[in-house]
Design goal:
This protein is mainly beta. It has no helices and ten strands.
Length: 116
Amino acid sequence: QVQLVESGGGLVQTGGSLRLSCAASGLTSSSRTMGWFRQAPGKGRELVAQITPSGVTPYYAASVKGRFTISRDNANNTLYLQMNSLKPEDTAVYYCNTVPSVRGYWGQGTQVTVSS
């Protein structure tokens, strides 16, 4: 059974930083392209960043490029998202999943709230 557990969210002021973690079990995430997604209130879920098994040339959505950094620790089956220069529009629930995403893999997510 695959379980993805996100953590590290919280309340931060504009310009602040957070580091999200995603612990994977039941899945050899090191062999999969993994991604961070987010869903803001009243909006659909969007892909924010993704990283291949090798970690070469990660993808970032235009809205976060230059501020967010995705990384992975294959030995520990953990995915990270370093978020800097946070903006109120980054407020959302953040999730990790494979890319393309698998419906049954969605976890609870972690809430990120950026105050202005």
